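QA checklist item 7 of 12: single-chain prediction sanity check.
[x] sequence parsed
[x] length recorded as 117
[x] structure emitted
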Amino acid sequence: EVQLVESGGGLVQPGGSLRLSCAASGFTFSSFYMSWVRQAPGKGLEWVSVIDTGGGTTRYANSVKGRFTISRDNARNTLYLQMNSLKPEDTAVYYCAKWSFGTTDYWGQGTQVTVSS
């Protein structure tokens, strides 16, 4: 059974940092691209970032480019999102998602990130 479990969310002041983690199990983690996706209150889903199987290629939404860094540890079956210079508009539930055949097929339960003073 595929499982994706996010952690690391919380309340942080503007300008602060958080690191999200996503523990993966039930599939060969190193064989699949992975993404972070977020949903702000009252808004739709927003794709944040994607990483290839080896971690050598990454892509980011313009809204987070230069502030967020996606990475993975295939030995630990874990995906990360380092978030720096956080802004109130980064407040959202953050989900990790597994890619397969050009689409996401499994999602975690999400972790809440709130950026507020």
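[x] summary fact logged: The two ends are 40 Å apart (CA to CA).
[ ] second reviewer sign-off
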